[in-house]
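This section describes the prediction task in plain terms. A model, or a person checking by hand, is given the sequence of a single protein chain and must write out its three-dimensional structure as a string of tokens. No templates, partner chains or ligands are provided. The sample shown here is typical of the held-out split.
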Amino acid sequence: MADPHIYLTQDIKDRVKEYANNNGLNFSQSIRTLIEIGLNSSEENILLKQNSVLLEKIFSRQLYLRDLIEQFYSDMEIEKLSNPRNNKALQKFKTNKDKLKYDE
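The expected answer:
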């Protein structure tokens, strides 16, 4: 393999040397290790972004389901009301639900 030549600013060189000293590596090993860490971090960032998108979809669907359940509860006409905000039983349930803490 050919020797790759790269230019590093003095600040980067100092940081690599410090990393090398802290980890008992020589300069080349430190460069290689830091590049591997950086590449792995890039892959992990892509996965984190994908997970964020999935969580946003889950959250959106959860809000939809909550609204749907509220409307269903209201439409059961337990108190002959069709507006969920006017349903005293539903408002009492929501107040009690908000007081609960989920530690899972």
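For orientation: The chain has one domain: 10-99.
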